[in-house]
Amino acid sequence: MTITIGVHSSNPSLYHLYHLTRLGLAQEELAPLGESVVFHPYTNGVRTGELLSRGVIDFGGTGSTPPVTAQAAGHDIVYTAVSAPRPEHGALLVPEDSPVRTVADLKGATVHLAIGSWQTHLVAKALDDAGLSYADDTTAVRSTDDSEELLRTGAIAAWVAQGAQLAAARRTGGLRTLIRTGDVITDRSVFFARRDLAESRPEVVEALTRALQRADDWAAAHPRRAAEIAAADLGGSADDWETALRTLPWRIEPVTDAFVAEQQEAADIFHRTGFIDRPVTVAHALAGAGEGAGSGADKAV
Predict the structure, then answer these.
(1) pLDDT digits over 149-158, tens only?
(2) CA nearest neighbour of 49 among 14, 6, 9, 10
(3) What is the CA 298 to chain-centroid distance, rounded?
């Protein structure tokens, strides 16, 4: 059997596992189980649930939002592992001289973010904590290459930046952090698989998790080389990538009740604000959740 691993640039652990194929980390873990490995690169992590359901990939990873929207869309997924929290991975930025001092001041404002990614979780929860609605009280617009310039010129009120972009924006100056990601959400990388693989071949999932940790160990030990790989492939400077990568925990953890509760809170906020159109029971996306759990999307009432 061949295990297909989905990979995109927004998930650091999978990204470096893919770029370290010359070290054979995934194959080395899976070969004793009689399995081979191929990678399926794609650009939009939001599609991960769909690709799993269609059988294009067997295993993938994203931030916190895509697995919730995947369940809401009826895709049958199983959580397999998570990263440690990433409190410095991103931030909601405003101009240094902006009158926006608190999240409540964003009412009626335009915010640029990667819609459908963990950034939606960040903004939706921050607004919810402030008594505002993601759907009704702000205008969320998908980030573009011009988002930072639009923020600096005052055309938009706020922008969620992450990784090397965040490091570059802070290096340039003139912007202020309104929300530090870790003050609102844990912002974990999240890994999930097709239910049939997760439930019938748990040893394969365990091997993949070990391979991810080995890739993380390499990135933690070689931050400059990891930064050079990212800069050459994705753009930006190696210095900014190194700054960003050094903030990551590079640690894979099991799925816990606390994580499920975090995801359930996000799912409830998404449903309440209309980001997803039906409620989701996150616990249905666990191995052995029981026949009939299916996608974890409950009937709308």
Answers:
(1) 999 999 999 9
(2) 6
(3) 24
Instruction: Say whether pLDDT at 300 is over 50.
Output: no
Tokens of 192: 């999930």
Listed in sequence order, the residues at least 6 apart from 142 whose beta carbon sits closer than 8 Å to its beta carbon are: 112, 113, 114, 115
Examine the pLDDT at 18 and tell me if it is beyond 60: yes
Written as six digits, the tokens of 61 are 């990873």
pLDDT of 265-279, one tens digit each?
999 999 999 999 999
CA distance 290 to 301: 22
Residue 106, CB-side half-sphere exposure with 13 Å CA sphere:
32
Whole-number Å distance between alpha carbons of 11 and 82 = 11
3-state SS record for the chain: CEEEEEECCCCHHHHHHHHCHHHCHHHHHHHHHCCEEEEEECCCHHHHHHHHHCCCCCEEEECCHHHHHHHHCCCCEEEEEEECCCCCCEEEEEECCCCCCCHHHHCCCEEEECCCCHHHHHHHHHHHHCCCCCCCCCEEEECCCCHHHHHHCCCCCEEEEEHHHHHHHHHHCCEEEEEEHHHCCCCCCEEEEEHHHHHHCHHHHHHHHHHHHHHHHHHHHCHHHHHHHHHHHHCCCHHHHHHHHCCCCCCEECCCHHHHHHHHHHHHHHHHCCCCCCCECHHHHCCCCCCCCCCCECCCC
